[in-house]
């Protein structure tokens, strides 16, 4: 039996694609181990999948000044030695990394031990962790064709994003029973795995107008439930959704979302008309802005800049999206984008 180590963490975007690969890896006969951070959210998510998990020390690599910049390099070095020890003992045939800062020492340790490494970059431009990891990678998978220009030609390959199979098999009736919603169309809001204060605030400010036309499922992030709105008819709040997500997607007629690459690729695979509010360049490296522009240009998404939220009627924008939903569905239906699971599994088989 061949062995594989998966790594990636920090946000759900660095974890859920790995989870999407698990059924196909098991079907292909791989024994699987996961290396993540000691205290990251990936530990609970992966252990819930009954996958052996090892935590290592992890430090964040920052482009800005922070006192932790002086201590975190030591954590990275410690993580490198810890990862090397785990990899040497497990002796995998291959390592697959979904990125995040915890993945860097794992990828480096694997390369030092002459083990093939495949990494996956979700965004149009590679993040700092994957920029470093790419130097040690055997192959680099991408979501967007635009990404290929930023990577070594002999390593980069367009695979698409691995989509969890269960998301494609949601039960609309089960969601109706769970929510108790009536005949109105359903709007779902996704603010990212950690939630978005800006998106949450904008939605709640416009909530009364939105509820005139829609029932609302709001995935608002940990600690972001507004208790004053718990009894609001037609409005349900969740910090995080796992097993019910596939059914909520099946029920949703339109979606408001951040523009994280994994989420928007799921929206594309599910053909869900969507309004994207990308994280601003002031609060990020601008990857969500580029992701959103790509989807808007392809006709898959309607996009509103975070900075303009205060000056528009969000309820009207959502209503317009719903009225024109078939235009977006048709564009997404004509997309060549496919579930990247098969492409990535074939690559793993090839190099393991």
Low-confidence stretches: none
- The class by helix and strand makeup works out as alpha/beta
What's the CATH topology label of the largest domain?
Rossmann fold
- Spell the H/E element sequence: EHEHEHEHEHEEHEHHEEHEHEHEHHH
Name the CATH homologous superfamily of the largest domain.
Glycogen Phosphorylase B
Count of discrete domains: 2
Largest sheet: 7 strands, parallel
Shape: globular
CATH architecture of the largest domain, please? 3-Layer(aba) Sandwich
CATH hierarchy, class of the largest domain: Alpha Beta
Helical fraction equals: 25-40%
Strand order in space, largest sheet: 3-2-1-4-5-6-7
Mean pLDDT: 90
Number of helices: 14
Strand content: 15-25%
Overall radius of gyration: 20 Å
Report on the structure:
Helix 1 packs across helix 14 (341-351), helix 3 (72-90) crosses helix 4 and helix 6 packs across helix 9. The chain is α/β, with parallel strands linked by helices. 38% of the residues lie in helices and 16% in strands. The protein folds into two domains: 3-160 and 338-351, 3-Layer(aba) Sandwich (Rossmann fold), CATH 3.40.50.2000; 166-333, Rossmann fold. Helix 4 (103-112) links the parallel strand 4 (94-97) and strand 5. The mean pLDDT is 90. UDP-N-acetyl-alpha-D-glucosamine binds at residues 11-13, 164, 193, 288. It is found in: Cell membrane. This is UDP-N-acetylglucosamine--N-acetylmuramyl-(pentapeptide) pyrophosphoryl-undecaprenol N-acetylglucosamine transferase. Keywords: Cell cycle, Cell division, Cell membrane, Cell shape, Cell wall biogenesis/degradation, Glycosyltransferase, Membrane, Peptidoglycan synthesis, Transferase.
């Amino acid at each position: 039996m061949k062995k594989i180590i998966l790594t990636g963490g920090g946000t759900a975007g660095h974890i859920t694609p790995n989870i999407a690969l698990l059924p196909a890896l098991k079907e292909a006969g791989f024994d699987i181990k996961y290396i993540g951070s000691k205290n990251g959210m990936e530990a609970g998510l992966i252990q819930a999948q009954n996958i052996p998990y090892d935590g290592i020390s992890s430090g964040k690599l920052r482009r800005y000044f922070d006192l932790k910049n002086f201590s975190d390099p030591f954590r990275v070095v410690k993580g490198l030695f810890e990862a090397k020890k785990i990899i040497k003992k497990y002796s995998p045939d291959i390592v697959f990394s979904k990125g995040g800062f915890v993945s860097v020492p794992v990828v480096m340790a694997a390369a030092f031990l002459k083990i093939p490494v495949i990494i996956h970059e979700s965004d149009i431009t590679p993040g700092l962790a994957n920029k470093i990891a790419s130097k040690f990678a055997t192959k680099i998978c991408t979501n967007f064709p635009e990404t290929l220009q930023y990577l070594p030609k002999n390593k980069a390959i367009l695979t698409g994003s691995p989509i969890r199979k269960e998301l494609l098999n949601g039960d609309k009736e089960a969601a109706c029973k769970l929510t108790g919603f009536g005949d109105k169309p359903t709007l779902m809001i996704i603010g990212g795995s950690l939630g978005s204060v800006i998106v949450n605030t904008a939605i709640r400010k416009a909530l009364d107008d939105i509820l005139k036309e829609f029932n609302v499922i709001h995935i608002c992030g940990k600690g972001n439930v507004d208790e004053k709105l718990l009894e609001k008819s037609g409005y349900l709040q969740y910090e995080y959704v796992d097993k019910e997500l596939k059914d909520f997607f099946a029920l949703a007629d339109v979606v408001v979302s951040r523009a994280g690459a994994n989420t928007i690729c799921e929206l594309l695979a599910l053909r869900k008309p969507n309004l994207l509010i990308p994280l601003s360049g002031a609060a990020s490296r601008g990857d969500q802005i580029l992701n959103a522009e790509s989807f808007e240009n392809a006709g898959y998404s309607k996009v509103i800049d975070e900075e303009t939220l205060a000056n528009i009627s969000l309820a009207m924008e959502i209503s317009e999206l719903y009225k024109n939903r078939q235009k977006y569905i048709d564009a997404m239906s004509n997309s060549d984008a496919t579930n990247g699971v098969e492409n990535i599994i074939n690559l793993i088989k090839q190099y393991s």
